[in-house]
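#struct-pred

JT: dropping the chains for the assembly here, can someone run the whole complex?
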Amino acid sequence: MSVATDSVFAGLGQRGTGDVLVVAEGEPDLTVGELLAACDHPVLALDDGWHGADAALTTASTRRALLAMAGLEGRAGRVLLAGASGSPALLPGARAVPDDAVGAPAAAPRATGAVRTRWVFATSGTSGSPKLVTHTSASLTRATARLPGARWGLLYDWHRFAGTQVVLAAVAGGGTVLVPAHARLEDRVGFLTRNRCDHLSATPSLWRRLLMVPGAAELPLRQATLGGEIADDRTLAAVAARFPGARVSHVYASTEAGAAFAVHDGRAGFPEGFLTDPPRGIALEVRGSRLHVANALVEPAYAGSGVRFVDDRGFVDTGDDVELRGGRFHFLGRSSGALNVGGTTFHPERVEEFLDSLPEVAHARVRGRASSVLGQIVVAEVVPAPGADRSSLAAEVRRRCRASLPAAMVPGKVLLVDELPLDASGKVARRD
Amino acid sequence: MRETVLEVLRSTRAEFADGPDLPELTDDTVLLESGLDSLGFAVVVTELEDRLGFDPFSEADTPYYPQTVREFVDFYEKAAAAR
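RK: done, full complex below.
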């Protein structure tokens, strides 16, 4: 291929202009021709003040997001992929691209002297304010295989790293992305089945839920991908049994490490040989029990704060513990004590902080408990405040959590205790 | 066994389900349409593990995902009988 590797949309020109790239419920289909037009003459009603400037995409629509990315690549400096719930202010100075600018008549041809546009993701889930990770176009498409005709189902938001990977696998890899709009999983599966979805990527927890949807086996899957959580042998086997025509893979990716590697042999963990003979473009090391990944295509410092997250040899500490058993590294979980409930990662302190703020609660400790359904669930041990009604406290605490916290952080179990054990330094002990 | 499973399904649903209009829980109710979300379902399995002493979803050689209330109850009864 003669196309440059540093464009997200390189290779599009090899496809027929009538090929459909995006099928989204409630929106017109997006074709190759429309996206190529957006690359050449940005269909963004934007003046040349955008040349080299930073932009933020806050649309909920995958179709609009792709058109805007095509219009901005080579013009804008950095583009924050914020999504409808994200704030453009995260990237200081970034101008939000108005929804009605996308699809408007072309303003001017691309200014001369193309800019090397970079793409910024806001990491979410863990405690504290989001961190901004900057990717090149090459890093976004590094793991994209050429799969002409693949019909990818999108079960993530387009602006999350996992979602962007799916969208670009379809667009840059020669396929189509199918975007369901329904909230209920049963309806999404119906939409994907009607549209002959044959490639699907989801968290292991979502796969386990999908296996409970009547009729899900009718999805004509050729590729089933698990990511975002530890993929265990049982879930891999269950997916393979339900979709006998599919290759079952699990991927290891994070915003900082990028799309590091995929494992296709249907077994949990990854081969020891990945350390000496790593997948193309990355390097892996295990220090102590901690997995480190080097991916030179990701910028080594957070945008905004400028804090470096790689060491002097280019390795990111992933925070994931692994253990070598029988020639294979198995994932053990987060070494920081962070919890992962159904693919959402967060620190238990974030839930404790909320519980401690409730008038009925004197003090709380939050831990994870292994769950065969969600990987982990939150267990909260609560010391009632003096005078609190103990008989209704557990239900009341859960009700308040449901009203104020993301679903993954709501305690599945609330235990009332008289006191919490302290460690030698007088802090609430993390482990018994 | 059957009563315990149904009781935990009902009580968890009362607390975790969204919306006031929940369908009556019968043998033929599809679990995903019972009003229980992923967390609610995880809580049911955890609660049953505490009461019964086992979790059939985490036991070896049984990667199985029931779709109706009847299949769910049967799964627990078979797992209990095999112990």
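JT: nice. Chain A touches chain B through 32 residues (CB under 8 Å). The radius of gyration of chain A is 23 Å.
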